[in-house]
């Protein structure tokens, strides 16, 4: 038995679904729950939905559960529930339903001695019908493999002989990728065949996944210009080449528009703020995408002690906006000289020229994806859109920058935040006039980075520093304030702790998760990111994209440098 108070190392129960042989041919998925008598319902994890079959095989069949191993005292068991996915059309923003098909359980105390001795146990279990079923015959069999390991051993990917995938719990180190999408809005969607505005939702899926199994937004009813501002997270294999974004008419469950996102064109941990064309016609969608992965970081990040990782948690404005807006976006960037940046913004405001623009990349064809890597030349990161309609905008979102010490340790180096909002309201029904969907610059804030270097607890101990009242200059309006939490540490130290951190963070929301939970999962993904260094923004007129003037070869040099000195 593990005794943490006596200095014993925590144990981890590894569970692998080896085989399922079921009576019926349907779409199935499984939930696996460790019940140890301490928390009602226990720790629950799940597979993806299978194809139509009576012998489902799941790519996400391996799970890990931290355990007290006090199984006899707590009447502990491992429960496996086989669920049948019911393909019902979406209604009122809800996902397709599922119903219990069969269930089985393992009495863990029965195998405790063998598991603690390091043995691997294979259990073939009868899947009993759910309560209320007229038949008492087994619905099939489920074969489960059990192993008990130390926590340190369990952090290694594939330590149980499988890929170690665990999509519904924590980030699986190095063996999975996650695509996060902040779905903002769509414009000029087509009318239905009856000439009415459609009721639509957005789903994102892999090529071989069904729409009803895919992460999806809620339904916006009767609108050609729907606004969602919702988070979707898709789990995908590292070898996956494409994610499919589908705009679906909820009334008929038919596809209105779709776009493909080539994952191999995305740079890991780089946020892209996109305008996607949805042909035919002038339909388009606005969203942010980011590919998250824990693949091995470049060697120079491990070996260069001067490479720093800056993590920023953006909170909320302290006051409401005078002009309400359903979409408010913040753009974060690093500037080399705070005074010069503020002066250039002031000049632009006075002259009403070269005002900052939202860093938006238009994707009008498949060839447009080839140019996205140019974004690395600048360090401007756009937030998701949040509601500013009668409430103070709140983001609760994380951003990560990787930079060399000399670029951020200067007395004048600062974090700059620019704020944008949609210009006026957009009719949910009418076709948009040109320019009606644009975002307007409304203000900015700056925070010097030097206080981070003055506090040894930040850089040495990994603590975060809170800036609760960073002054926000709003154009023509009384100032407001924004809250920030900022952390700074060596990239090499972050990499050393990455495995331990990843094992504690849940990154996939449940099927019925509300938007706050989804955004919480996105923050966890960002906490695991280590983006490639980008050229810190030079002091340029704020309306000029630094990516077009700062040489991209800086980033490429850092990619390929054989030693820290050459970086």
Described by strand count, sense and barrel closure, the largest sheet is: 9 strands, antiparallel
User: What overall geometry do the principal axes of the alpha carbons give?
Assistant: globular
Radius of gyration: 25 Å
Poorly predicted runs = 1-8, 88-94, 154-175, 537-567
Based on helices, strands and strand pairing, what is the structural class?
alpha+beta
- Count of individual helical segments: 11
Give the end-to-end Cα distance, rounded to a whole number of Å. 49 Å
- Strand proportion, as a percent range, falls in 35-45%
Number of strands: 25
Helix content: 10-25%
- Mean pLDDT, all residues: 81
Which properties best describe this structure?
alpha+beta; nine-stranded antiparallel β-sheet; globular; disordered C terminus; 25 strands; 567 residues; five-stranded mixed β-sheet
Summarize the structure.
The protein is an alpha+beta fold. The chain has helices spanning about 70-75, 110-115, 150-155, 300-305, 340-350, 405-410, 450-455, 455-460, 490-500, 515-525, 555-560; strands at about 10-20, 30-35, 45, 60-65, 75-85, 100-105, 120-125, 140-150, 175-185, 200-205, 225-235, 240-250, 255-260, 270-275, 285-295, 305-315, 325-335, 360-365, 380, 385-390, 395-405, 415-420, 440-450, 465-475, 480-490. Helix content is about 15%, strand content about 35%.
């Amino acid at each position: 038995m593990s005794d943490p108070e006596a200095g014993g190392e925590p144990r981890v129960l590894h569970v692998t679904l080896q085989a399922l042989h079921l009576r019926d041919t349907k779409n199935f998925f499984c939930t696996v729950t460790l019940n140890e008598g301490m928390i009602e319902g226990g720790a629950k994890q799940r597979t993806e939905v299978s194809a139509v079959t009576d012998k489902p095989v799941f790519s996400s069949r391996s799970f890990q559960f931290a355990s007290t191993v006090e199984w006899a005292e707590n009447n502990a068991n491992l429960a496996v529930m086989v669920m049948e996915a019911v393909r019902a059309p979406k209604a009122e923003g809800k996902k397709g339903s599922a119903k219990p098909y069969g269930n089985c359980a393992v009495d863990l105390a029965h195998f405790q001695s063998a598991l603690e001795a390091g043995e691997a146990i294979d259990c073939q279990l009868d899947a009993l019908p759910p309560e209320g079923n007229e038949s008492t015959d087994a619905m099939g069999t489920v074969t489960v493999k059990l192993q008990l390991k130390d926590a340190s051993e369990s952090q290694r990917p594939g330590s149980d002989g499988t890929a170690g995938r665990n999509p519904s719990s924590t980030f699986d180190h190095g063996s999975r990728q996650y695509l996060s999408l902040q779905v903002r809005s769509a414009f000029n969607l087509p009318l239905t065949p009856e000439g009415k505005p459609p009721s639509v939702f957005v789903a994102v899926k892999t090529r071989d996944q069904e729409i009803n199994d895919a992460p999806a937004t809620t339904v916006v009813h009767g609108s050609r210009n729907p606004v969602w501002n919702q988070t979707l997270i898709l789990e995908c294999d590292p070898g996956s080449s494409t994610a499919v974004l589908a705009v679906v008419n909820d009334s008929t469950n038919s596809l209105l528009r779709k776009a493909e996102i080539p994952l191999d064109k995305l740079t890991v941990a780089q946020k892209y703020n996109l305008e996607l064309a949805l042909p035919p016609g002038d339909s388009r969608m606005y969203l942010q995408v980011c590919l998250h992965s824990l693949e091995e970081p470049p060697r120079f990040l491990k070996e260069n002690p001067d490479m720093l990782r800056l993590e920023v948690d953006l909170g909320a404005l302290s006051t409401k906006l005078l002009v309400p807006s359903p979409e408010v976006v913040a753009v974060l960037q690093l500037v080399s000289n705070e005074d010069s940046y503020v002066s250039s913004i002031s000049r632009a405001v006075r002259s009403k020229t070269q005002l900052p623009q939202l860093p938006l990349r238009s994707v009008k064809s498949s060839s447009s994806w080839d140019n996205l890597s140019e974004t690395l030349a600048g360090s401007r990161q756009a937030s998701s859109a949040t509601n500013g309609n009668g409430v103070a905008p709140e983001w609760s979102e994380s951003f990560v920058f990787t930079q060399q010490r000399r670029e951020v340790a200067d007395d004048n180096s600062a974090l700059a935040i620019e704020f944008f909002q949609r210009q006026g309201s957009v009719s949910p029904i009418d076709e948009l006039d040109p320019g009606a969907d644009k975002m307007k610059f409304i203000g900015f804030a700056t925070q010097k980075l030097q206080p981070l270097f003055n506090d040894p607890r930040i850089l040495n101990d990994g603590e975060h520093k809170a800036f609760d009242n960073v002054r926000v200059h709003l154009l023509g309006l009384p100032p407001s304030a924004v809250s920030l939490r900022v952390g700074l540490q060596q990239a090499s130290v972050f990499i050393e702790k990455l495995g331990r951190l990843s094992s504690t963070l849940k990154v996939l929301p449940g099927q019925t998760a509300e938007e706050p939970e989804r955004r919480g999962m996105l923050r966890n993904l960002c906490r695991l990111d280590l983006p490639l260094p980008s050229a810190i923004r030079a002091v340029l007129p704020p309306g000029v994209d630094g990516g077009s003037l700062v040489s991209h070869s800086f980033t490429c040099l850092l990619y390929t440098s054989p030693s820290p000195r050459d970086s």
